[in-house]
Write the structure tokens for this entry.
Amino acid sequence: MKERVTIREVATLAGVSAGAVSLALNDRPGVSETTRQRIRAAAEQLGWVPSQAARNLAARAGRTDTIGLVITRPARQLGLEPFYMEFISGIESVLEEIEGSLLLRLVRDREQEIAVHRAWWRDRRICGSILVDLTKSDLRIQALARLGIPTVVAGNPGLTGGSVAAVWTDDSAAVEEAVRYLAMLGHRRIARVGGDPRLGHTAIRTRALAAVAEQLGLEPPRSVPTDFSGQAGARATRMLLASANRPTAIIYDNDIMAVAGLAVAAEFGLHVPADLSLIAWDDSQLCRLTHPALSAMSHDVHGYGALAARTLFDLVHHREAPSAPAPTPTLAPRGSSAPPGPRPATH
């Protein structure tokens, strides 16, 4: 009895590689239609039939356990951003359990981001997507819904209208805790170095800062927008410290900007925390490597990424996938915060 015809034999007759045969016979992209037809003709001539193992692999390919994540950030900046490194590691911890994969792309704008998701879904490269950096009336949500892509957003459900599964942290509560702590220490003039004002979580934090400051009778706080980079954080800090009404405490929207702010305080000859208190956000290892160590709103970003991934797989596998909050960031006081010192006399 003749042995089963192999893919390699089909490849030899068609004059292509074994990989091309696999793509063609499993209806995967990567070969031209002319080549695909030649391969199928060769397979039919030789009487090739797929093995049961091949059928199983093909079926699995149609149910890929690959998550898509597209981020609109410069590659150099992302490499320095502790938040995303931790968030991605949380996603990977879930993928490791199921031998899944992550497709990651960095793009220049939202239109390119939608195009990447569309191409991945068309080519059956992903089972679903996680959206980050939500904005108000985010166009990506409707675009992915029209494509039928299972989607989980990492952001407040108030920004989605409840139309898509979401995981989020309570940024308002976290800001309130930070401001109340500083007010308890005696600070009345608090500023914030924030992120892109178009982003939903930036806007939520800005509103929360103004509301709690008014409630506590503090001076109206100033929020300076940035792109989250260390350079922008340093520029914003210089602007605040050079102003006539210099703050006695500054809250930063990420850790890298807080580290930059600490260096700027030294440039101005200010001692932290005697002359200026600083609070970072996310509490990565950076906060514990500075001198003094940075007080921070401690956030389990790794767990946040893992929650987003688990929620997406629940959605993909048609299990109940309700929106769910991640633990709220909590204050970790360290050496960069203290009661304000006496203001220098003016002449």
